[in-house]
Every structure is written in structure tokens, then in C-alpha cells.
Design goal:
Elements (H helix, E strand, L loop, with lengths): L3 E4 L5 H11 L6 H7 L5 E8 L2 E11 L2 E9 L8 H15 L4 E7 L3 H9 L3 E10 L4 E9 L1
Parallel strand pairs: 4-5
Antiparallel strand pairs: 1-2, 2-3, 3-4, 5-7, 6-7
């Protein structure tokens, strides 16, 4: 799959909000996504194939720390390298901002995502009890040092 990565724009918001609803039990709203466009600490970007958004990632970089807020890939584009490309692009952007690490939370049951993060050098650093709702579930904290 040919993928183009680019910063999120106002034109991407509606589809990304739909993707949020498809992927997450507590999705970001269009309003919340729109606010990130003017947040100087936010780095949100899309993955497109043949002009159509197939995934996106949002992260916040503060001082030398980077936290991934969300990674979402549309169901029909999963297992085709989109998530890996998003992670590698995030690492590039974090390095450009002189961050020393990238961290994220992931549901303990999301074995596919955990395998992807592990394959990209993320390590399990801890666990947050009952972090997620719908259903209630613990989160693994995974970090990659740059």
C-alpha cells in the first residue's frame, strides 16, 4: 500500500473524527481535534493512500518528552504497514523536536498493537489500573528512548 504522511489539516477533521468513533470507545470529538491544530505542543498527522485518509496519529511534545495520544488505522487498511509508518514518522518528528523518548498507553488486550510497538523498540514500563472504560481495562505504558 502506497502511503503519504502529512500534517493534519482542518479538511481532515471530519474523517478523523469518524475514524475515532470506529476505533475507540471514548473517541475524540471534532471540536477536540480542531483545537489541536493550534496547539503548539501537538503533532497530529495523517496517513493517506490514493488521496484517502487510512490512519492518523496525534502526539504531544513538551520539553524533551513526547506522548502519543492516539494511533488509529481504518479497519480495511490494518496489517498493511500503516501503523508502522505512523510510528516511524512520529519518531522522526520527536527527534526533530529534540525529545528523549516517546511514550504511549495501550489496552492490555490489544495484542496486535503491543506486538507492533514492541517490534518498533517500545518497552513495557508499567501498567495503569482501570485506565480505559467501555470496557474497563488496564493500560500498558510503553516507551521508546530516542
Amino acid at each position: 500500500m502506497e502511503i503519504t504522511l502529512a500534517p493534519m489539516t482542518a479538511q481532515d477533521i471530519t474523517f478523523i473524527a469518524e475514524l475515532e468513533r470506529e476505533c475507540f470507545s471514548s473517541p475524540w470529538t471534532e471540536k477536540g481535534l480542531r483545537e489541536e491544530l493550534t496547539n503548539e505542543n501537538a503533532v497530529f498527522f495523517t496517513a493517506k493512500s490514493v488521496g484517502k485518509t487510512v490512519g492518523y496519529m496525534g502526539m504531544h511534545c513538551i520539553l524533551d518528552e513526547c506522548y502519543i495520544a492516539n494511533v488509529a488505522v481504518s479497519e480495511n487498511a490494518r496489517r498493511q504497514g500503516v501503523g508502522k509508518r505512523l510510528l516511524r514518522y512520529a519518531e522522526k518528528k520527536a527527534k526533530e523536536r529534540n525529545c528523549s523518548f516517546i511514550s504511549l498507553e495501550v489496552r492490555v488486550s490489544n495484542v496486535g498493537a503491543i506486538a507492533l510497538y514492541t517490534s518498533e523498540g517500545y518497552e513495557k514500563m508499567g501498567e495503569r489500573k482501570n485506565f480505559y472504560s467501555g470496557p474497563t481495562e488496564n493500560a500498558l505504558i510503553m516507551t521508546k528512548y530516542l
